[in-house]
Write a structure and sequence with these properties.
alpha/beta, two-stranded antiparallel sheet, disordered C terminus, 248 residues, 16% strand, 7 strands, Nucleotidyltransferase, domain 5
Length: 248
């Protein structure tokens, strides 16, 4: 019987099936600081099983600078709104052109959406279950949690905040990031990296001139990348045309 029904095209799913619309792949490109920011929230283990603190971190994807961080006992849309507002304030009042995040409840909350709309910031979200759509925040969290000084668990909310304050000070001002030609994120963010790059090259030129036999070719300092992106597009249009603003 099923063979005959199959031939007649009458064997199919009889229940109503939900049809999920295809999510557009976010494509963002930044050619300088304060063009695209990325933020996410990660959990820090507390003193007891099941107790976690929530670390909010905002990163500039071009400079890799952690613009702002906060540690809270919970994850809420109102806290996320205040966190973004404070990040813009601490950045001298300069807001980015676009902010990218994943699809957590805080990221997609109405309070955050309304704030970004008021600040004329384009919002962009990762596709569901695609961690590669938010690589800068994910990589920064790995750097944090694989740090030799990372304690694994924290005795209190104050302990977590104190550790993160020390870590992000080091990360922004001392950490030589391989993705930005071994400059510190803060120097790239405020624009002093170009002058430092020239001094590095001058030192290498002097060393080559003093000992030419030690070099088979002229030494060059690592070059700063011209752009940073999330899902590099086939073409590189203007940033204002690029971030995907989703209402879903």
């Amino acid at each position: 019987m099923y063979r005959l029904l199959r031939q007649a095209g009458q064997v199919r799913e009889r229940r109503a099936q939900a049809a999920h619309p295809a999510r557009k792949k976010p494509e963002l490109i930044a050619t300088g600081p304060n063009e695209v920011w990325s933020w996410d929230i990660t959990k820090l283990a507390g003193p007891q099983r099941g107790v976690y603190y929530h670390l909010y971190v905002m990163i500039d994807i071009f400079s890799r600078c952690a613009v702002h961080f906060e540690v809270h006992a919970t994850e809420l849309g109102e806290l996320a709104k205040d966190f973004i507002t404070e990040a813009v304030r601490l950045n001298g009042g300069t807001a980015p052109l676009a902010i990218h995040a994943d699809r957590g409840t805080s990221m997609t909350s109405k309070t955050v959406s309304a704030l970004l709309s008021d600040l004329a910031i384009l919002k962009s979200h990762s596709r569901p279950n695609v961690s590669n759509d938010n690589p800068y925040s994910e990589a920064q969290f790995k750097t944090l949690k694989y740090c030799p000084a990372f304690p694994g668990t924290f005795g209190s909310l104050q302990d977590a905040r104190a550790f993160c304050a020390v870590f992000f000070t080091y990360y922004n001002h001392e950490h030589r990031h391989s993705g930005i030609a071994l400059h510190t994120p803060y120097s790239v963010h405020i624009g002093t990296a170009a002058a430092i790059q020239d001094k590095r090259q001058a030192v290498l030129n002097a060393a080559c001139a003093a000992n030419p036999r030690r070099f088979t070719r002229r030494p060059r300092a690592p070059k700063m990348p011209a752009a940073a992106w999330i899902n590099k597009p086939a073409t590189e249009p203007d940033i204002a045309q690029h971030p995907s603003e989703e209402t879903a």
